[in-house]
From TrEMBL:
Matching Pfam families: Glyco_transf_4, Glycos_transf_1
Every Glycosyl transferase family domain range: 209-361
GO MF term (any one): glycosyltransferase activity
Protein name: Glycosyltransferase
Alphabetical list of SUPFAM superfamilies matching this protein: UDP-Glycosyltransferase/glycogen phosphorylase (SSF53756)
Amino acid sequence: MQKPIYLVITELFPTSDSFRGPYVYDQVRAIEKDGRYEVVVLRPTSWLHKEKNYEYNGIKVYRFTHYDLPSDMWPGSNTWLSLRAMDKCLKYLGIAYNDIAVVHAHVSNNARFANHVKCQNAECLTVLQHHGYDVLGLSLGRFSTKEWHRKRALRYGVRECNKIDLHVGVSKEILRYLENNEGIKLNGKYVLYNGVDTDKFFKKSLRLSSKNKTFTIGCVANFWELKDQITLIKAVEILVESDCINIKVKFVGTGYTREDCEQYIQEKGLEQYFEFNNEVDHTQLNAYYNTLDLFVLPSYWDSFGCVYVEAYACGVPFMTAKGTGITELISETDFEKWVIEPHDYIALARNIKNYMNKHEKQILNSAIDIDTLVRNYLDFINIDKNTVAE
């Protein structure tokens, strides 16, 4: 008997040239592994770029053209052309709309495609997953500061989102951001944390403890203001001034605030305590995490943050700041040990020093294994599709 189709529509999917969207790839693999559905991945591609279907690590990705205007000029423009292109793609693949049991679109701009499937097959469950706090894309494009554009984006986003059966957030906080938009009414919601493929990320061996060993802190992120790497640098400065000199921070990432961070380090004469790398190949990230004693990213505006759970899966605890979705996985009793107020480098220095002295075990209040998280999600949507929206 042929399995029902689980249709994924996303622009967030890796290619041989770009690793953007690895968490969606891992999610697709986990749904496939569960065995209840045949998973088909469609990737909308702008009419400005002629790109072909491809395969990424065993997952076939089929492209169809969307006809959005450049720079998100007028959200929802030329939708009928984009829907027709999806129709042609499905026909080429031999997929009838009645064969689709679930259509799972990523980010609000792709809600229109899920709703189109629903129009052709009323029995299909529509799922829309949100990954960033700007859930309706109000800040996208060169016209994002224009009131007319924001009103159009809001009106269009609310209209499409309100048709969706189930909204999935990578944290509770992101769903709260969505619900705060005027006019939004969620028919159903579910929190699906970005899990970890534990075949890729795992603890290799016990690190030897020694008074003379350098305590190594890792930080993987783009150098953007909201990632706030400068807070970690200032915290380490405090530790060094208090004679905590067996310490090293290994930064990975590029971005517009990196130059300021490097300049600050030079001005303070702290070069020996910091290392900068532009990137680490994703296949080498497990090895990188396994060199660390602690992972610190004091970001204060992140819907979740996969790097935290990647480090945790490798046996490395993490510290962050309030405003990041990952804090939902930290219990109230341990909260202040691992979470600071945004920009509070004094508290961060104190927390790092406490961990260096005590090495307390970090315990999360949720599973992080992606197979477990996806299995629970699929159980939820299969209990009774008619009750999902309740």
